Amino acid sequence: MTGISPEGAQTLTKLGVSFAGVTSRATLRAGVAEALQMIGRRIVSVKGAGT
Amino acid sequence: VRIPILRLDRILLASIQVDLTDADAMQFQNDVVCQIAEIEAMGIVIDITTLEVVDSFMARVINDTASMARLLGSEVVICGVQPYVAMTLVEMGRDLIDADCAFNLDQGLKMLKRVIATRGDAVLVRGDDDERLAPG
Predict the structure, then answer these.
(1) Between B99 and which of A5, B13, B62, B66 could a Cys-Cys bridge form, CB atoms 3.0 to 4.6 Å apart?
(2) What is the per-residue pLDDT for B131?
C-alpha cells in the first residue's frame, strides 16, 4: 500500500482500522521496490544501452 | 511544550524529556506524522528515557503514533523505557506499547538501521541498485 497522506494515516489509526498484514510505503517508487524484493527481482539498467 | 524532532538523514529522532500534557502529546503526534510524510522517513526513534511516568493516555499516543508511522511506510523503535514504566504498562494491560523497543538510544538506532537495511526500498536511498544500505 502506498501514498497514504498524514491525515489519512491519523484517521485510519483513530478509527482503529488494522493493517497488520499490509506493508505500507510512502511512495509508489518505494512500494514497487518493496514488491520487487518480495518476488526476489530487481530492475537494473542494461550495460552499453541507451546513454 | 513542543518536542523537537531531529532528522538524521532519513531517520527521525524524537526525545521526550518532559512530562507532556494531553494537548502536547497530541501536538507531538501530529508533528511526528507530518515530519515523516515530509521527508519520507525510513524510520523513527522515540526516546522516552527521561519519562518517569507514562500514563495510559501517553501509552496510547505513543502506540497510535507508531501505527501512523507504519502506515506512512516508516519503521518505529521506542527506546529507554524505564523499569517502573515497563511494570506499569504491563500491569495496565498488554499491547499498550506494540512497537519494537530497545534499551537505549544507541541500541535503538542500531535496531532501526538493521530493519531498514532489509527493506526493499533501502536501495533507493543510495540511488544505486547494486549495494544495499549497510546496517550499523
Answers:
(1) B66
(2) 46
Spatial contact of B54 and B80, defined as CB atoms under 8 Å apart: no
Contact B73 A43 (CB under 8 A): no
Contact B121 A25 (CB under 8 A): yes
> Where does residue A43 rank: exposed (0-12), middle (13-18), buried (19+ CB within 10 A)?
exposed
Contacting residues of B for A24, CB less than 8 Å apart: 70-73
- For strand B11-15 and strand B43-47, is the pairing parallel, antiparallel, or unpaired? parallel
ipTM of the complex in this document: 0.84
Calpha distance B98→A18 (Å, rounded)? 13
A33/B67 CB distance under 8 A: no
CB atoms within 10 A of CB B2: 9
pLDDT in tens, B44-71: 999 999 999 998 899 999 999 999 999 9
Assess whether pLDDT exceeds 70 at residue B127. Answer: no
Residues of A in contact with B40 (CB under 8 A): 26-27, 30
B96 and B59 Cβ atoms separated by less than 8 Å:
yes
